[in-house]
Write a structure and sequence with these properties.
Layout lengths: L1 E7 L5 H14 L5 E6 L10 H13 L7 E10 L3 H13 L4 E6 L7 H6 L2 E3 L8 H20 L7
Length: about 160
């Protein structure tokens, strides 16, 4: 199974880029991981937030194939503890899925079509974080889940 993480816009803070890079490398020891960045269009919000989300949504969905299991990171999604998330990921892995798509939208969220295409919504917290910070938090949790599944000594109960 391959995990494809789709994000809108580059991560512009160096400390976030560094942390994300560390966890991406660690994750790749366990599972194939690809990160796709949908470029932000500067000034596009002036044409309206809904138009911006529709445009970003089309570009996001162009990377999703039929048969992909699509998870949208959204503050209204389901919340898991780390062990519960590991179990969830394990179930997806044994289900024979070829690709899991994780979507992290832009600063204004995602379009209705992205919500409709998603098989599951997942929240990393009830608190609100920037769309760039969520990337680091999610990658750490994905790494933690993989370490739990392999019995590696990263997670402590």
């Amino acid at each position: 199974m391959k995990v494809i993480f789709i994000q809108v816009g580059e991560t512009d803070q160096a400390y976030l880029r560094e942390g994300i890079s560390i966890f991406e490398a660690r994750i790749r020891h366990y599972i194939p991981l690809q990160v796709i960045t949908i470029p932000e269009r500067k000034g596009a919000v002036k044409k309206g937030v809904e138009r911006l989300k529709e445009s970003e949504g089309e570009r996001i969905l162009s990377n999703c194939n039929q048969g992909d299991y699509v998870i949208l990171l959204d503050e209204r999604g389901d919340q898991f503890g780390s062990r519960e998330f590991a179990t969830f990921m394990q179930k997806q892995m044994v289900a024979g899925l070829k690709r899991i798509i994780i979507i992290s939208g832009g600063a204004y969220g995602v379009s209705r079509k992205v919500y409709e295409r998603s098989d599951r919504m997942l929240s990393v917290s009830k608190m609100t974080f920037s769309h760039q910070m969520i990337r680091l938090i999610f990658f750490e949790q994905l790494y933690r889940a993989m370490a739990i599944l392999k019995g590696d000594p990263y997670h402590h109960d």
